[in-house]
Structures are given as C-alpha cells and as structure tokens.
Amino acid sequence: MRIPFLLFVSLLLSCLSASAVEPSQDLARITVIVTDYCAAWSEPEPARRLALLQKTWAEKGTYTDPTAIVEGRDALHQHIGKFFEQFPGAKIVLSSGVDVHHDKLRFGWQLVAGDGSIALEGMDYGELDENGLIQRIVGFFGPMPVKP
Amino acid sequence: MRIPFLLFVSLLLSCLSASAVEPSQDLARITVIVTDYCAAWSEPEPARRLALLQKTWAEKGTYTDPTAIVEGRDALHQHIGKFFEQFPGAKIVLSSGVDVHHDKLRFGWQLVAGDGSIALEGMDYGELDENGLIQRIVGFFGPMPVKP
C-alpha cells in the first residue's frame, strides 16, 4: 500500500508546481505589501500610516476580524487610529512567511503590546485586487481551535 | 508597564465576548456543515456525495485551492469524483474545531490516503451564505510558511 501513497503525494506536488502558485518575484512583492500593511498597524502617526495604507490597501478594501467590520481605506485608517488612542505603542508584526496562490493569501501575525510582550497571536486570510493591493482581510484570533 | 498590557488583553477579550462571534448553537450547526462537507470529499459514491454537497454547499459556491478553481456545486461534485478516480480510498478529515465569526470560518484538515497514512495537511478559509451553506472555500496546503 506504499506505492499509491507515494504516487498520490508526487502527483499532488506535480500539480502544485504546474499550478497558479505565484512565482517567487510575485511572492517577494506580495511579502513587501503584507509587511507594509502590518507596518500600518504599527504606525501611530496619521500621515505615515495613511501613506502605508495607500501603497498596500485598495480604496474600497474591506477588513473583518472577530471584533470589527471596516469598509474602505479611509475607514481602516481611522479604525487603526482609534486602536492607537486606546493602546499606545502596540504593533502588529508578521510572524510567518506569506502563503499565496491565485490572488489569495494567508499569514500569521503577533500583536505586540507597548511593553514588548505578545498580547495576541492570529492569522489573516487576504485577497489582492488586479493592482496587487489588498482588497480584503479576514482575521482570526488565537491558534486554530482544537478538535472537539 | 504591566497594567497597559493587562488592560489591553482584557479590553480585547471583552470586545470579543460582545462581538458577532457566533453563539454556540450556531457553532454546533456550522461544525456539522463543515464535517459533512469534509465527508463529501470522503465519499466516492456519486449519489451520496451529491446529497452531502446539497446540504452543505451553495449551488453557485466557489472552491479554490493551489491546484484548482471550481465554480458551482455540480462542478465541485465532478471535481471530487475525478479526485477519487485517481486516488481511490482517500479521505478528507477535519483536524481542528471550526473557528467562526460573522459568516467567515477556518478549519484544519488532513488528507488521509487509502493506506491510512496522512498524505497532506492544510487549512481552509470559508464563507457561509444567508442560508448557512458554504458559498466559498479557499484552501491552503501544508503548515503556515516559516518567516523568511
């Protein structure tokens, strides 16, 4: 029964290598976009934060996490601003590589509090628009839940 | 610096408990939907597989993974059928709880080969329609990539 298993895996991997997985130059570009998007969640100064969102986030992009639904770049800019008013010094730091296929992606992040401790970890699912900007993020908090 | 950190976490958790996180009865219902959807990927008999998709998958739902984009329930039914023609005896098994907020979800899965070995692990991001059926899955293969 080992041959079907190995055949299975090798066919899966060959499908993957022939598929629409982004070439490495695109992965590098997308990793910069995601890193700069996280930097926007780490930038309390409004003009610098807006500049980071303008180069990473689609004008009508939607952000959803367990606590909020935010529609549009300007609204996200304001939303992050309120976050900093309440929690000065917090940062969002990319904690994984960016996994991309087609125009979809996922990545892990850490929310680092002002004292440097990790307040929360999670992952985001995302989608890119035709210009390579993030048009959608759906965030999840904490690790994947354990099977009941 | 410990007080801001604890305040931060407690406010985050209070936001979560007051948010649109699905109540437990919905989580139980959605977990059944996802389990039955995985069962469709484990059911080689076409009529039984179609019945599982009819109660879990929206008629125009879209499925995307690194190797395929499949649009519509009938096309997904055919797609899974081709999977079984090539890999008889394979199963998709839910490997985590289902994490849900708003109409978005994530879960982990294992692809178990015909000999019982784990051929692949991954996670799916998903969305539910207004009837509680899955209208979108975007799958990712393997663990979250390591930070470069």
Describe this structure in words.
The structure is a homodimer of 148-residue chains. In chain A, 38% of the residues lie in helices and 32% in strands. The first copy, chain A, has four helices and seven strands. In chain A, strands 1, 2, 3, 4, 5, 6 and 7 form a seven-stranded mixed beta sheet that branches. In chain A, helix 2 (24-40) runs antiparallel to helix 3 and helix 3 packs antiparallel against helix 4 (73-86). Chain A is globular, with a radius of gyration of 18 Å. Chain A starts with a helix and ends in a 7-residue tail after the last strand. At the A-B interface, helix 1, strand 5, strand 6 and strand 7 of A face helix 1, strand 5, strand 6 and strand 7 of B.
Offer a quick outline of the entry.
Two copies of one chain form a homodimer. Chain A has four helices and seven strands, in the order αααββαβββββ. With 148 residues, the first copy, chain A, is α+β, with helices and mostly antiparallel strands.
Q: What oligomeric arrangement do these chains adopt?
A: homodimer
> How would you classify the helix and strand content of chain A by structural class?
alpha+beta
Please report the number of helical segments of chain A: 4
SSE pattern of chain A: HHHEEHEEEEE
Averaged pLDDT of chain A, please?
88
The largest sheet of chain A, given as strand count, sense and whether it forms a barrel, is: 7 strands, mixed
* Proportion in helices of chain A: 25-40%
Shape of chain A, please?
A: globular
Ends distance of chain A: 31 Å
Give the percentage of residues in beta strands of chain A.
25-35%
Total strand segments of chain A: 7
